[in-house]
Amino acid sequence: MESTRRYLIYYLVYKNFQLKYKHSALGFLWSFLHPLLYLLIFVLVFSKAFPSIANYPLFVLSGLIFWVFFSNTTNQLSSVFIRNASLIKSLNIPVNLYAFAELVSELMTSLLGLIPFMLLMGFFGMNVTWNLLWIIPFLVVYGAFAYSLGLILGSLNVFLRDVAILWNTINPAIFYLSPIAYSIDIIPARYKMVFLFNPFYYFFKITREILYEGTFPDLHTSLLCILFTSVFLLFAIWIFRKTHNGFISNL
Amino acid sequence: MNPNTPIIQLRNVNISYLQNRHGVFSLKDFVIKASRLSPFVRRTVLEDISFKIDKGEAVGILGRNGCGKSTLLRTISGIIKPDKGEVVVNTRLLPLLALGVGIELELTGMENIRIMMALTGQYSRATIKKYTESIRDFSGLSEEQLQMPAKMYSTGMLARLAFSTATATQPELLLVDEVLAVGDKGFQEKCYERIQELRSSGTTLVFVSHSPDELRSICSRGICLDDKRMIFDGPIDGAIGSYLNLFHYTPRHGHTGE
């Protein structure tokens, strides 16, 4: 059964890729161009606003590319069961495979996108050392975090279609509430508290340590990320288990 | 496995859906209707269904629209779990329900064949390659057509693609949900031929249809459903009779024209 799952995921991912890039001339390049356009805007608009941040392009990139991954993954996952409704209703394969295949597709896109970005970050003065490999365990935890949230949204969205729309709407708000284009140092002390409840504060702290500052990820922060991701993942699995039997009659 | 073990066995199966009471699919509806305790209500679709289907049988399922025929097929294929009772299906492959599901219109015919075969349990590249030949032959679609996106296909061509892919692999169990009506005369005949071929090589067939002629030519046994229950299980002619009775038809006899 394990190898069956592997094959099914392989073909679902294959399908995702074919569907996604079939009709665009630039195809795969888009996953690279999209964050690049954002970067350009940020550099033009904000680098003057935050003169205290050294090497602003590298600073932004080390948060931005991971945000783009998160935002794409959760948006895709929030509608994954609806998009696959006809298959879910007529094929007896485990429903969570559709969600997992979506995560794998997004992870692959991001990993491939990471290559040009690494080059770009090297150009902006990133230290190229073995230290950068810390990004791999980071992606495992971060991927699990995005998957958890996406699975919760996707499951609820089957019953209440507003969930995906709502998520699409508040997505940009979370972006601006997270320290991506700015550093938490510019936040007045009495508001800093708020950021302590934002998971991205911790995640981007780690990516900045790895990619921007060129140091090891902080142990305390890393453990905290692993802890709340695990809690989140368990909660997501619980929600999925509670709801997935009702998918068929509501799709 | 004992060759006498039935391929499908249902024992006192009850199926119910947790259904959205008002079709509440948006937050606005939800708030408006929130006065009720729960927006969901449990609706029974099938009650106390029991039957056995032996290997190689061809069984037709009849009944009014919405009487639970598709639900019954979904139960057999394991997509829906029963609330009560037991469903045992002894087959290795995942049966494909309604032909044509999973066809992605943006992808080419060839890519669709590959994906559909994989999703129904044929994973290895070699197997897929082996069968694509016979799919191409049977569907009558040209190499050029198979390289076109499926959205450019006509309804009939889509049916050809779907039917050829679903039957190419000599499935042990084929569940068919009202699909043979599409396709031109020539292809329909080919489909019947293929079904007879599959039957003689041991494929078990469960077939939902509203066409008495179609059922008579393919199936030897029929199950008629009405009001959530089985009202007939026996020879196909009897099942068709009890189906027509639902609409108060009396079968016409030869002398009516005079």
What this model shows, in words?
The complex is a heterodimer of chains A (251) and B (258). Chain A is mainly α and 251 residues long. In chain A, 75% of the residues lie in helices and 0% in strands. Chain A contains twelve helices and no strands. Chain B has 258 residues and is an alpha/beta fold. Chain B is built from nine helices and eight strands. A five-stranded mixed beta sheet of chain B has the order 5-6-3-7-8, sandwiched between helices. In chain B, helix 3 (109-119) packs parallel to helix 6 and helix 4 crosses helix 6 (155-168). The radius of gyration of chain B is 20 Å and the shape is globular. The model of chain B is unreliable at 254-258 (pLDDT under 50). Classes of the chains: A mainly alpha (251), B alpha/beta (258).
In short:
The complex is a heterodimer of chains A (251) and B (258). Chain A is mainly α and 251 residues long.
* Low-confidence spans of chain B: 254-258
Number of domains of chain B: 2
The overall strand count of chain A is 0
General form of chain B: globular
Largest interface: A-B, 29 and 34 residues
How many domains of chain A? 1
The first-to-last residue Cα distance of chain A is 26 Å
**Largest sheet descriptor of chain B:** 5 strands, mixed
Q: How much helicity do the residues of chain A have?
A: over 70%
Order the strands across the largest sheet of chain B as they lie in space: 5-6-3-7-8
Residue stretches of chain A low in confidence (pLDDT < 50, at least 5 long) are none
SSE topology sketch:
The complex is a heterodimer of chains A (251) and B (258).
Chain A: H1 2-21, H2 30-46, H3 56-78, H4 80-83, H5 85-90, H6 96-123, H7 135-159, H8 162-177, H9 189-195, H10 199-212, H11 219-243, H12 247-250
Chain B: E1 8-20, H1 27-32, E2 40-53, E3 58-63, H2 69-76, E4 84-89, H3 109-119, H4 125-139, H5 143-146, H6 155-168, E5 173-177, H7 185-200, E6 204-208, H8 212-218, E7 221-226, E8 229-235, H9 236-245
Parallel strand pairs in B: 3-6, 3-7, 5-6
Antiparallel strand pairs in B: 1-2, 1-4, 7-8
Helix pairs in contact in B: 3-6, 4-6
